[in-house]
What does this fold into?
Amino acid sequence: MARYLTSVGMEVHAELLTRSKMFCRCEVGFGGEPNTRVCPVCLGLPGALPVPNRVAIEMVLRTALALNCQIAYDSVFHRKNYFYPDLPKGFQVSQYGETNPLGYYGTLDIPAADGGTKTVRIRRVHLEEDTGKLMHLPGGGSGVDYNRAGVPLMEIVTDFPPDITTPDEARDYLQQLRLVLLYLGVCDGKMEQGSMRCEPNISIRPEGSETYGTKTELKNLNSFRSVQMGVEYETERQSQVIESGGRVVQETRGWNESTQSSFAMRTKESEQDYRYFPCPDLVPMHFEEASIERLRATIPELPLAKQRRYQGEFGLSEYDAGVLVGDQSWAGFFEEAVGQGGDPKAVCNWMNGDLLRLLNETGQVALAGGQAVAHGHGTPATVSKVTPAHIVDLVRLVGSGQINSKTAKTLLDDAFSSGDMPSRLVEAKGLTQISDDGFIKETVAQVIAENPGPVEQYKSGKQGVIGFLVGQVMKSSQGRANPTMVQDEMRRQLGE
Amino acid sequence: MSISLDEVRHVARLARLDLDESELMAFQGELNQLLGHFGDIQGVDVSGVAPKPHAVALQNVWAEDEPRFGLTREQALRNAANSRAGLFIVPTIIEE
It folds into this structure.
């Protein structure tokens, strides 16, 4: 069988986090009773006139800037005409053209297998509106809910020829893009709820060939995993079609999560059939360079850049840095702790280890100062009492040898439930690490005297028993003895 | 500039209109008349006139992102040919 190269173009739709819809002021929300967030504009009633949402336009411009796009200083909306019951007007307002989309010719960096980065070129970032939702009713007929109709929708499309060549890269691209949108605060990225949707188009060609094969588009992918699986499956399916002497048909295929396979859906109308033309109900947009620059100044450090900086500046592993930047508030927590003088590696270890475990167990979120209010994160009950200051305090206590790491774990548990500072808990409970030479000598001697069996085993060559003996010393000191000193003293006394 | 019967059939299909032969021919005539008007417009000398994206000399008309209540569900569904359980009901859609 010939070897085939895969090419993947990615089309991502992201619902924008505005409060009202794109061309009317109906509220945006998820779920709720059907057809309760509708008006003459989003229902397409005759005579209703659309007015664009300024915030949605800014969100798309900010995304375009974050993706290094050129900005269309002059831009218009078009009508994309097709008939489908989820589209009440008979057209979708969208943006057509080479350089008319608010952003075009950009890039997104994704992590590369060698630890570096790979650049994926972006073709366009444009603004359109979402459709309603269709549901099939038992006993015939389909029901339509227009609550989602007219919700601002941003479309981000990669460039051709495609830079993405493996299922893993398709998944990585989507993960990075989602993080960027979350960092920008323009989309909640909930793939399972459909607020971020991905439609990869996949083609294969024999190795050495310059001509790209016929592509198929995949729909219904609602997780990173399904995107990766879907691209894998299509690659395999297409190569089987070709190997058996067939021809790949250009079509839209649906992904069936339960059977892990794709099935043919409608054959799409050709672009010409959409009869795009400028929407006469909407006037052109024009942006001054100064206002674009004001928006550019609001772009935060992007997740991959942040991850690479943590690796370089603090010597964190790619994995650890990735966990930190995987959530903007988690990265913010880390930076605040480091800003307060906490050792970056130690702070990271406590955060990604015990603190993360405690948060997962209790369903709480940890936030740096003021973030709870600023980002509307959680309710007071779901916000952890542990702040960056607690972690810095804990790291200092361990670093200066006042407590050992076993005590520190217990302290973090305590601080997590009480909100008390670890150093206060140390004072209150008398938990300071004991590095007193005399005490350690005495306790070690006592443990040796009480455990003749293990001592015999050690002396006959079973070195591992020392762990048990040291453990006994730690136990009788309630975990407060300096473990390194205990270890050294134990070896010394046993060696005599 | 004229439109063929097949093109009329195609456009009718895109509009989900089920037209018989005599209707198709009637529309072909009307559409050709329309296209004739466009032909007249295309004859106008526009050299030296910059293209405009819109006939109205306005730009950047937009609204602040403040939700306002639109229609009640009863109002929204009042003109629906068929509705049930708060939904607009349409003939069964097989695809998707």
